[in-house]
Request: fold
Amino acid sequence: MSFASTARSAPLVSAFRRTIWLVVVAVLAAGASCRRPPAPTPEVLALTTEALPLDPADGAWQRAPEHVAPLLPQDLVEPKLSKPSTPAVRVRALASASQVAFRLEWIDAAADDLPGAGRFPDGCAVQLPRSASVDAPDPQMGESGRPVEIVYWRADWQATVDGRDDTIQALYPNATVDHYPFEARSLQPGSEAQRQMARRYAPADAAGNRRGGLRQSAVEDLVAEGPGTIAPAPSTTSRGRGVRTPNGWAVVLTRPLPNGLGPRGRTQIAFAIWEGSAQEAGARKMRTGWVGLSMREAP
Amino acid sequence: MARVYNWQIGREMSYWYPESRPRKQFAAVFDTNKCIACQTCTLACKTTWTSGKGQEYMLWNNVETKPYGSYPLAWDLNLLDMLNAGSWNGGRYTGQTIFESAPAGERVLSWRPASDDYAYPNVGEDDCAVGVDGGASFSLPHMAWFFYLARICNHCTYPACLASCPRGSIYKRPEDGIVLVDQGRCRGYQECVKGCPYKKVYFNPMTGTSEKCIACFPKMEMGLQPQCFVNCIGKIRMAGYISRPEQARPDNPIDYLVHVRKVALPLYPQLGLEPNVYYIPPLNVPIPFLRQMFGPGVEAALKVYRNADADLAGLLGLFGSTESVMTKWARRGDEVMGLDDSGRELVRVPMREPVFVRPWYDKANNVFRVNCP
Ligand code: SF4
Ligand code: SF4
Reply:
């Protein structure tokens, strides 16, 4: 029996939640004395705290209880993921008065952060219903009229933010290029005329669709109302940072608290992981259904 | 999947979306016999559209030497290996298309090229199908053969790129059937790169979206043929619009070549996309090879081509004669004319070019006009 499936039987849920809460407090107390991490929880508990760390290695994360979310292949709409890859994602959450932050950690032997033909970057995402709700829309990208909000992180964007050059040689070290039109002698380096010439041969940039190239942030805010409808949010306010761990990735995603999620509130959350080595992108991903997300005041 | 009609395979087939033909369909005829693999078309396209960062390896137009050339590597062999191809019963294809043989969870049968598969843009150039033994080149017919296959996006009636995109970022323009990737909507999943059997969508790693041949639509909208057509040294190409077979008009040059004379054939029709670049097959290539590549109409097409009458020869003479799109044509005696929709004359070409003999010594300039004295 999963916790989510009992969500509608309120007395049982609240009793269960109280129990979890006691367990969490006990484990936290134990953790404080002997530094053992808290035991995994059956749903995601976001502990309130003052400042939210963006660094996945920040010690503050160890105070948050961990939820281990098993992942399923996306096998509901074509194109499907035929072979399961990443088995699970470990999630911790912290919340401030206005923001909530998630730390996702998963095992991935190879860092895939080079975009290219037939190459796919590793990535992860969290999805929440637009308004806090236990009766969430379809976990598969939401429903028409009932949008979900997604914070999406990608390893290649992280590499760019961390300083990788915006050149073809940074992706293909042996590439040689004779000449680009924006390198014409008549164009002043750094001038607007030069930028315009470069944009002429970068149609997605010209269309305002920044999927690659230099960027300030490794994450993107998205909204969706069903499979195939995902679209960038009017602006990205979320932040994120991913680092390699000895055997995978740890990524922190920070976003504003969803509408109506108060200090003791509860909503739903879903996770997705893309394994670049398995050529996962878009609909080909490992994902969860809805998982409960509850706010808890830190002891 | 919906049921749609594909005239190139003479039957209904399955497709991801219902049949929705454009008001006009962009189409082209390439005469493989005239291509010299100079790659001027490739460069004309590259200079016009793909000179940017991330586009270095893209060849929206490429020319490969068959049988061994291919870009990306083995684009056709890999798919033919996977396809549960059947035979033809007259004009009806009895095997499966890539839509009908899609594995569970997929929209089309396809494979994904790796970055390395794009590393050899002209592999197999001028390689013959068999070794040339000493003296063999002096005997006829030649045992060794190769030919040049110029390729652009086929602006298919049933595009696999479009069917593969899970978010509908690829569209087929209702006004002219040109297939485009919406650069504002694409999220770079590369499903189209995998799905297109002709491998004519390319992923741009610097912008993070997929890009493809746009049939120079800004030119086509002005009644001008695309860059790779007007720059073609061999004058092998003609761009225009094709009708459905039952609506074919003999005064439309593309209809005349494809439907009336049946001298120009689609590339791998058995894949099921109803591609709209039509090839006059090469002479002197083994028929089984050509049948696999261009379908069952190959022998008849070659016969018509070999015995070209004045009309066919005249129309072929219009290839490369003007930058304008000739939506109509007419022959008067030993002159052939390209016309626009209203019947206005765009170009007039003699059936036989006048012969000029150049004297070997130019007295006025005191120059010799021959290479070898
Ligand atoms: S040739 Fe490929 S890219 Fe062009 S329309 Fe057909 S399926 Fe799409
Ligand atoms: S420009 Fe014409 S002749 Fe030259 S390679 Fe291209 S299609 Fe062939």
Summary: Residues 1-35 of chain A have pLDDT under 50 and may be disordered. The pocket of iron/sulfur cluster (ligand 2) is lined by residues B 35-41, 63, 148, 150, 232-234, 236 (CB under 6 Å). DSSP finds five helices and 14 strands in chain A. Chain A has three domains: 1-35, 44-164+214-297, 167-213.
